[in-house]
Amino acid sequence: MSKETEWNERFNIGVASIDHAHQKLFSIVRKLISFSKDKNNEQWACAEGIKYFKSYAIEHFSDEEAYMRSISYKGYEIHKRLHDDMRFKTLPALEKNLKESNYSQESIQHFLGICLGWLTAHIIIEDRAIAGLITNKWKNDHIGEDMAALENALSVTIREIFRLPTEVISEHYSGENFGRSIIIRLTYLSTDHKQVQVFMSLEKSLVLQAVGSMLNMTLRKMDNLVMAASKELAVRIAEQVGIRCQLSWQYQLESSHFMTPEQFRQAFYAGSFDYSLLFDTGCGYFAFVVDV
């Protein structure tokens, strides 16, 4: 049994119904992980287990939203949008991948890894705020034209640089681990001397595909060349997004460096962010986070 899926007291928020639901969700994931590793289990059985997880998770979202309304929780609107991202974007995208791969072991592991990472980050960052254990981390809930402009700029840039289709699967990415990834922090200084940080997390499969396509060869190893290229790609992505959003003239790049997943988690949990998006390219996930 994976230690990451065992119930840990730090996940308790002090609301019995919510804590019980969280424990059950982790229990379902734990069983699915064990089930998926048994090659004797048929595809339909895994599909039914995943369907049950989705059904229970959506039911829990509704119950949790009802609780937030009952206590007049001030962060209700954005919290519901986080649930809606998972309901209507992330889960459908994951299900599509499962069906297209005929529920391959790799796609099931990917599904469970994303759900496990999302649950962990959501409980620690968002649900604990319901009970007042931590402060709500979102500075603003950007919706409408600003968010649409950023999403479009990123989608166009990713398509141009990686030559891959993109799909937004979360407008409120919460820093969860979505697999083996390269994480880069870019620090900018604005013309009025304010510091802006941009974090990008790129799944390694996406980086290898992107750099490999540039060289017209298949790459399977993250060596120094690939790492250097990935950092430069991150800088160019930010630059192109800035140009498309008519912000490039306001900011000057000060530094760029890699981060470990643990450093990223610590920065994410400690900070509060203006924009936090997660994209699926079909070859890997790409997260774009901005702290202004």
Task: Characterise the protein shown here.
The chain is 55% helix and 15% strand. It has helices spanning 16-36, 43-70, 76-100, 105-130, 145-162, 204-215, 224-244, 261-270; strands at 167-170, 181-190, 195-203, 251-259, 275-280, 285-291. The chain has a six-stranded antiparallel sheet. Mean pLDDT is 85; it is low at 1-5.
Structure keywords:
292 residues; alpha+beta; six-stranded antiparallel sheet; globular; disordered N terminus
Helix content: 55-70%
Oligomer: single chain
**pLDDT < 50 runs, ≥5 residues:** 1-5
Distance between the termini: 40 Å
Mean pLDDT: 85
The helix-strand sequence is HHHHHEEEHHEHEE
State the total count of DSSP E strands: 6
Report strand order across the widest sheet. 1-5-6-3-2-4
The amount of beta strand, in percent, is 15-25%
Map the helices and strands:
Blueprint: H1 16-36, H2 43-70, H3 76-100, H4 105-130, H5 145-162, E1 167-170, E2 181-190, E3 195-203, H6 204-215, H7 224-244, E4 251-259, H8 261-270, E5 275-280, E6 285-291
Antiparallel strand pairs: 1-5, 2-3, 2-4, 3-6, 5-6
